[in-house]
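Appendix B, example 12.
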Amino acid sequence: MNEQRLYHILLRGKLDPELAAWFPELTHAEADDGNTLLVGELPDQAALMGVLFRAHNLNLTILTVKTCFSLT
């Protein structure tokens, strides 16, 4: 059984389609408060760090990162 983690990453503000394209492994939706929620399964911590580094390099503010296990 392959164990991945499901991540919820909340970014400040609304992502336009050009910025959202930088995160193809995650789905994105506008949160109730107008911020952007990225959601998806990532295989390991290195993949998570890749997503967080991309957000940082794009000058996006990371508000929260939540995780839970997902069995696939």
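The CA atoms of residues 10 and 64 lie 5 Å apart. The longest helix spans residues 45-57.
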